[in-house]
Specification:
This protein is of the alpha/beta class. It is built from nine helices and 14 strands. Leucine-rich repeat protein that likely mediates protein interactions, possibly in the context of signal transduction.
């Protein structure tokens, strides 16, 4: 049996820590950079490796540049060229989210939910169908919420300290909008079985909580138009997301998502997708089936390529953000269908200039220039 290629251990100095990396002695600098990407969150094109005062060239082998077992190599990161929430430093955790909710910093008041409910005239909820409970430092949803039952259409309990969404949520069968942004909800204290009963739900926001995963039950919310799950700790999306045929907006930035299910291509109504600041290295080819897609944000991921049919089949696409990825403008221009896409977005930009709406006057190419490699 042939012996395996000899390996060496290189000591990478980065952001106040030392990272031992085992690599084949015959490996190139480019290969070492790819190994460092998941360990540091710094994209290969944002890495400059220096050993004994000399910059290591991508095409050169480590052995040819006198990098041997035990060598110390310094990693210098270019600003902005990272995946996820940013470079992993000595004082950060790869599993932590970058945004800390305000209520995690301040201490919640000890006021009881019943008292707060009284202050904001809970009796009106049943009449108006709207319960506005945002910014009240609630630790749980008031009992009067369940009393409203099918009369309630909108429940906004954002920016509180709520830890649990109980099964009793199923009583709100007429709910169209449920906003739970910026609370302390985790996987074990949210009743997805209860949420699945909300068949009229159009808008669900669970951003800025402590969720690690989404269950298959999500696919039963077939009326959803908007799903906002940004700033959690999610590492994937369930296959059942493809059942959300009416979903138009998916906001899932600032998580730890590494892969996407191909079933996302079945979300045929999607017009806007934001997956910025995750750990994606590729998008499924099924993205080419999103014929209504207009806006796609993929900033700060490890993407090296796009689905081959994205520009050819997504004929509504006019906004694309690939800044801070491995895809530069030069690479972008080589994707089939780019010319038609470029013409569409420039026409939109010109209309904004003509009507002075939503434009600074500077046209965004959609990706970084190659000169940001250094």
């Amino acid at each position: 049996m042939e012996s395996s290629s000899p390996t060496i251990t290189v000591q990478i100095k980065f952001a106040g820590r030392t990272i031992p990396v085992e690599v084949p002695a015959a490996a190139t600098t480019a290969e070492l950079k790819r190994l460092l990407q998941p360990l540091t969150n710094v994209l290969p094109r944002g890495q400059k490796l220096v050993c004994k005062g000399k910059v290591l060239q991508d095409a050169g082998t480590l052995s040819s540049m006198q990098v041997v077992d035990g060598s110390k190599v310094m990693l210098i990161a270019s600003q902005g060229l990272h995946q996820g929430d940013g470079p992993i430093t000595k004082n950060s955790s790869s599993s932590a989210t970058s945004v800390t909710k305000t209520s995690n910093v301040k201490e919640c008041q000890t006021q009881k939910p019943e008292t707060i409910a009284g202050k904001i005239h809970a009796a009106r909820w049943k009449v108006t169908g709207v319960a506005a409970l945002h910014d009240y430092d609630l630790k749980e949803l008031p009992e009067d919420v369940w009393y409203c039952g099918p009369s309630l259409r909108i429940l906004d309990a954002s920016n509180n300290c709520i830890k649990e969404i109980p099964h009793k949520i199923s009583a709100l069968k007429s709910l169209n909008k449920l906003l739970l942004t910026a609370n302390d909800i985790d996987d074990e204290n949210i009743s997805w079985e209860g949420l699945s009963c909300l068949q009229k739900l159009l808008n669900l926001s669970l951003s800025q909580n402590r969720l690690l995963s989404l269950p298959s039950t999500l696919g039963s919310l077939t009326s959803l138009r908007e799903l906002r799950i940004a700033n959690n700790r999610l590492d994937n999306l369930p296959i059942e997301i493809g059942s959300l045929k009416h979903l138009q907006i998916l906001i899932a930035n600032n998580n730890r998502i590494t892969t996407l299910p191909s079933s996302i291509g079945d979300c045929e109504s999607l017009t806007e997708v934001d997956l910025s600041s995750n750990l994606l290295t590729e998008l499924p080819e099924a993205f080419g089936k999103l014929y209504n897609l207009k806006v796609l944000h993929q900033r700060n991921n490890g993407l090296t390529s796009l689905p081959s049919t994205l520009f050819k089949k997504c004929m509504q696409l006019i906004t694309l953000d690939l800044h801070g990825t491995e895809i530069t403008n030069d690479i972008l221009r080589q994707v089939e269908g780019w010319e038609e896409f470029d013409e569409r977005r420039r026409q939109k930009h010109q209309k904004q200039l003509d009507f002075r709406v939503g434009s600074s006057g500077v046209f965004d190419e959609g990706a970084d220039d190659d000169n940001r490699r250094r």
